[in-house]
Amino acid sequence: MDLLSVLPDFPTKPYAHIIPPLERSHITTVDLITLDTLEVAKRARVPPADVRRLSAQIIRALHHDVGFEENKDADADADEPSSSLSIDVPVFPGPTTRLDASQWSAISTLDPTLDALLDGGIPTGYLMEVTGERCVPSLLQK
Fold first, then answer.
1. Are 20 and 51 a contacting pair, CB within 8 Å?
2. Are 115 and 121 in contact, with CB atoms under 8 Å apart?
3. What is the dihedral of CA 114, 117, 118, 119, to 10 degrees?
4. Is 89 exposed, middle or buried (0-12, 13-18, 19+ CB in 10 A)?
5. Counting Cβ atoms within 10 Å, is residue 32 exposed (0-12), middle (13-18) or buried (19+)?
6. Alpha-carbon torsion (13, 18, 22, 27), positive or negative
7. What angle do CA 105, 130, 111 make, to 5 degrees?
8. CA proximity to 40, closest of 83, 88, 1
9. Highest taxon of the source (predicted)?
10. Chain Cα centroid distance, residue 29
11. For the chain, which has fewer Cβ within 10 Å, the N-terminal or C-terminal residue?
């Protein structure tokens, strides 16, 4: 299983009893967060509740890794006991997910409106794909 290569600091000790069967079944981290819990549990022959708990913990760790934070107000209003799983806890962008436009240079699109939407143009140092409708000159000439 590629869990420690995806999240090197992930605490695997609470899940030590289900990780070996998951590895033998060739289940990856992506499988854990995208496939149905029952399907993964059936394939690896492990308890579904443990797979659900592991999946929820992985999702929480991935959110934290990319800078998202859990909504603390949602936890205060919950009537569920603390031992229950709250997979759908709302998350919001944390301070580390905000980009500072002053820290990068941009290439102008030569369109002031588009440059304003892009905060000055297309940022350098990133791969960007621009898609959209294009007009065919032969159709416009008819």
1. no
2. yes
3. 120
4. middle
5. buried
6. negative
7. 60
8. 1
9. Eukaryota
10. 12
11. C
42-101 pLDDT, tens digit each: 999 999 999 999 999 999 998 888 777 777 665 444 444 444 455 566 766 666 655 565
Concatenated DSSP letters of 58-76: HHHHHHHHTTEEE-HHHHH
pLDDT of residue 97: 57
Of 26, 32, 51, 31, nearest to 41 by C-alpha is: 51
d(CA 31, CA 74): 28
Count Cβ atoms within 10 A of the Cβ of residue 54 and give its class: 0-12 exposed, 13-18 middle, 19 or more buried.
buried
In the block, tokens 């899940």 appear at 15
Phi, psi of 118 (to 5 degrees): -95, 15
Tokens representing 133 are: 């409708």
Q: What is the mean pLDDT of the chain?
A: 78
Residue of 22, 24, 23 lying closest to 40 (CA atoms)? 22
CB 3, CB 29: distance < 8 Å: yes
